Amino acid sequence: MNGFTVGCWAPKIPEFAERLQLTKFELGLMILVFGLGSLVMMPMAGAQIAGRGSKIVVKAFAVLLLPMLLALTVTQNVWTAAIALFLFGGFIGAMDVAMNANAVSVEKSMHRAIMSSCHAFWSLGGLIGSAIGGFLISRWGVLGHAEVSTALALLFLAVAWPMILGDQPHPDEAKPKARLPMIPLPWLLGMMALFCMIPEGAVLDWSALYLGQEKGASVTLSGFGFAAFSLTMATMRFAGDFVRDRLGAVKTLRVCTVFAIVGMLLAALAPNAELAIVGFALCGIGISNMVPIAFSAAGNIPGLQPGIGISVVTTMGYSGMLVAPSAIGFAAEHVGFSPVLMALPVLLLVVLALSSLARYADGIGGGSH
C-alpha cells in the first residue's frame, strides 16, 4: 500500500508541476518539502514504536496516508500543495520506519531473512502504481486517477490489516535509548542507505520528466521509467532473501552495487527513451537488495534497540530524498538530466567501499554478530 501510493505519485509529478507552473528547480524545492516531512516524522515514529510497538504505529500512519493523493490532486496553489506534500512525505516516511521495525520483529520470530521480500512488496506496489498511473491519467484525468488509486490503496490496507504481527513495546527502554546513538555503526549504515536512496529518489522524482523532455517519450511511456525500475526491483527482492542466505549479505550487496552503477550509466547515456528505460530496469536490479540489507543490519546492531537503529538509518536514507531532488532540479535546469544521472554512480562507489558493514545483516534472530 505504501509503495503503491508512492508509485501513483510518480506519474502525477509532471501534471503537478504544470498545474502550479513550477520550473525544474521550484519542483525540486517542492519535493524537498516531501523529504522534510519524512525527516520530521520518522524520528517521531521511532519513539512511538519504542513505547507502543510497531503494529499500532504502522496502522495509524497507514490510515493518515490514505487521503493524501486526493489532497495533492485538488490543491490549486503552492502553499496548500506544500502542506499536502509535507504531510504526504511525513506519513510515507513514518509508516516506512514502522514497517521496517515490524519486519525486523518478523525476521527474529522466524529466524531467517525476510526483509528483501517485504521490500519486494513495496516495489511491487510501486510498479502497479506507476504502470497504471499514466494510463489512468490519460483516460480519466488526474482526479479520476487519484480516486481509483485511493480506492485500491484502501483495498491493500484492508487485506494487510488483520495480518500485521503484534510486537511487544519496550517502554522501559524508550527513555534511555531514545537519544541519538553515540556509536558510529548506525551512522555509517545510514550513509550507505543515503547513497542507495539518492539514485532511487532520482528515478522516482525525475525519470518521467527526463524521458518526456529529453528523450521525447509520451505521457504513458514516461511512466514506464519508474515502472521498469520497480519491476526489476520487486523481482530481485523476492529472490533477495534466498540469494542473501546463500551468498551472505556482503557479497550480495557488492554484486547489486555493480548492477546499479551500470544501469544508471546506461540510463544517462541512452540515445532514446526505450534504452533509458532498460538502464532504469538494470538499476532496479542493483538497488533492489541494497536498502533492505542496510535496514536488516540496522535492526541487528549489538547493544542498540532495533527501533532506534532503524530510525537512524531510515531517516538518513530519506534525507537523500530531501537533498537530492532540489539539487538535481537545479543542476538539470543548467546542464540537463543526463550529466546529473552520470554523476550518481560516484555515490554507489562509496557504498561499495562500506560494503563489509553489511555483515551485521547476517546476525538475524539474536545469533552472533
Automatic annotation (TrEMBL):
One cellular component term from this protein's GO annotations in UniProt: membrane
Gene3D superfamilies named in the record: MFS general substrate transporter like domains
Subcellular location: Membrane
Keywords, ordered alphabetically: Membrane, Transmembrane, Transmembrane helix
Record-annotated Major facilitator superfamily (MFS) profile domain positions: 185-369
InterPro entries, per the entry: MFS, MFS_dom, MFS_trans_sf, MFS_Transporter
Transmembrane helix among keywords: yes
Classification via Pfam families: MFS_1
Signal peptide segment: none
Bilayer topology: Multi-pass membrane protein
PANTHER family per the UniProt record, alphabetical: BYPASS OF STOP CODON PROTEIN 6, INNER MEMBRANE PROTEIN YBJJ
Protein name per the record: MFS family permease
Organism of provenance: Rhizobium paranaense
